[in-house]
Amino acid sequence: MRRVAIVGAGMTAFGEHFSLGIKELMPMALSEAIASVDKGFDRRDIQAAWLGEISSTDGFGAGILADSCGLLDIPVSRLENACSTGQDIIRNAIYAVSSGHVDVALALGAEKVRDTSTNATFWDWMGLTRDMAWDYPLGLLAPANFALHVSRYLHEAPATREHMAMIAVKNHHHGVNNPKAQLRFEVTVEQVLAAPIVAEPFGVLDCTPQSDGAAAVILVAEEFVDKYTDRPVWVRGFGLGIDRVMHQHKTDMTTFPCTRKAAKMAYSMAGIEPKDIDVAEVHDCFTGVELISYEDLGFAARFEGHKLVEARDHYVGGRIPINPSGGLKSKGHPPGATGVSQCFEIFQQLRGEAHNQVDGAKIGMAQNIGGPTASCGITILGKERG
Amino acid sequence: MTITVGTYLPPWGTDRSRTLGYDEDALTLAVEAGRRAIGAGSSATRVVFVSRDFPLLEGGNAAVLVAGLGLPNDTEVVERLGGAPETLDALITATAGTLVIGAEAEGAAGAAAALIADENLLSLAGRAQRSFPQRTRLVTGAVYRDENPRMLRELGIQASLKEAALAAKPLLIAGLRAKESAGLVVGKAPDLPTLGAASPLFAIAGLIETGGKGIIGACEQGTFVAANFAGGKAVVNRNEPQAQALPKRKLMPGGEIRIALGAYARAFEAKVRWQAGRCKKCGKLAMPPRFHCLGCGADDSWEYTALPRAGKVYTTTTIQVPVPSLASPYSLAVVELDGTDVRVLVHVTDSVPGSVKIDDVGRFVLRRVAMRTGVPDYGYAFSPVSGNPGGSK
User: Fold this and answer.
1) A72 — contact with chain B (CB < 8 Å)?
2) Chain A CB contacts of B334 below 8 Å
3) How many independent structural domains does chain B possess?
4) Residue of B65, B212, B222, B333 with fewest CB within 10 Å of its CB?
5) Pick the residue with more confidence: B15 or B347?
6) Alpha-carbon gap, residue B366 to B75, rounded angstroms
7) Are B231 and B338 contained in the same domain?
8) Is B178 in the same domain as B287?
9) Complex ipTM, two decimals?
10) DSSP element (H, E) containing B310
């Protein structure tokens, strides 16, 4: 199999783009990705494209990508894998390139969340990920879905809501420097703890905002990389883990088995260990989820995630900087685009051009978890081919 | 035992007048009372369900009722529209094996049921059916009232009592408040917790407990029925927790929860009868039942088996934000069922949202989990065993 590198990456700002539709956001992200290719890039070089979009709000996704981006003569597929969608389109594009079927592939994630009224689409969104007879009528909304895990985690582990709040403080702090971030302001532990409760133990400031946005990466087979850049970012490993879809069937809710499975695959493929990761973008749709994920990704021992927080190891400059982009918490979360935007951040980190640059970063990770905590996608990228 | 009476009052409202919980209706009240009347070891072959508040006029209440009661699907069910007189009439004509349930969702809420095991202890003492429609309710649900209590007393109850020509004064008249029945009954009548279909059953429960016998009446506007209650072998099984104010909950308009009828129908037996699938090969339980066994991987080899109705909270959360068409706040819990490795995800009921904690114990009760585009969606909810709905231990 051929090695695969990312030669260009771009994203729109995340936020409430009331004046921009999906037909604008997609080509905006692609054009920025193309502009980032050092030696220039002709979009006609793209031989296949994958669209990551969870919910279609304004028409037929694959067709819109082809049409709005001027890619009418190549195959385009839309893929949905809950909030792991972004990593999963990259994984599928890598399959195509590494297998030799195509030399240049596009992975583009996009989502228009804010086009829809909360009232009308609330149940439609839940309908995407909940059992229609058993879970859906209960109102198991996304925060509750994760809160059931975090409540049990707080019951068994020494961690507290303060540790969760410290994660919000850190991600907002990182997000202030990121011009693409939606919530560019600092928060304090006191503010996070005092914020109105959404679903216990999550207050409003423990939760990601709702966002519109798009992000794109261009993946190229090793023998063509030189044509585009002398500073490629190499795919070192990837994994996708799945878990049981009903919470009542998850034996230990203090952990996310899908994350452990995906991490095992990705680390093994890259031939590295958690300590080799220099920088990571970790899915922090809710602060407590980032906390549990420290352990599932191997950055902290079981039930010791809070120690990493207390030591401020998760800040840029710390032992394992997490979410230098601001994470979902500050940067925003348009689900189809989120994972791709994480790889955009890691792409910049490994090329030394990030807004919160981690000095000398050589290996970075991007991770998403989604659905009924049943899907995790991970991509490991490296400065070196490995 | 000749008669077993079961009662149920929601834990909400005041001791004088109970209020329906957000997830209750006349059917869930009926199931609560009916299960206490049936008890262990006995069984009903016929059910008469008396109410003016049937959740459905079309679509059927009977399947949920027999499933909730744990009776066979071919049990005869009579849905009898009416108030106190209709329930007393249903009791008078009940044959052995009949379960009579009266349930009231409007006004003071409550339900009571009596299972007639062999001998009926009630016989007709008098009946008068006269029209005095001071209050009406149309099929659309619209209610009209012409308030004149003293006219009602004279042209309604007193005229009907006279026409019924009872051999003696009744002990009490279900359907009237104690003070309204002053002078019409022997001595001072008890205040019953409801005034409609459940009230004659609450009256009989009281007589059984105090060893009383004699004539009992039931009235509704111009309609009056009286029965001789002979006394005898009878038992009462009450579920009447202390009352407290119903917590305020917000209901955001819009965004109805759509029913998915295929999924509803496939889940019904497990969901409303509280049954897991048990693998015929390895015995592993699965809730909900599933094609591919969780234990041994056998395909399509399972049978229904009753689940325990008690358990302990493994984890919980309370949703505080407004949710379209679901009253918030509400608590969800993953609960471990006693003596099994089965967990379920359910709403927490009968308690203030947010009061249940990990490791709290409780039991499972049939509730209306959601209203889904016109379909009441019934399932089980976790009722913490704290005695007092205000606090967990």
Assistant:
1) no
2) 148, 247-248, 253
3) 3
4) B212
5) B347
6) 19
7) no
8) no
9) 0.96
10) strand B310-319
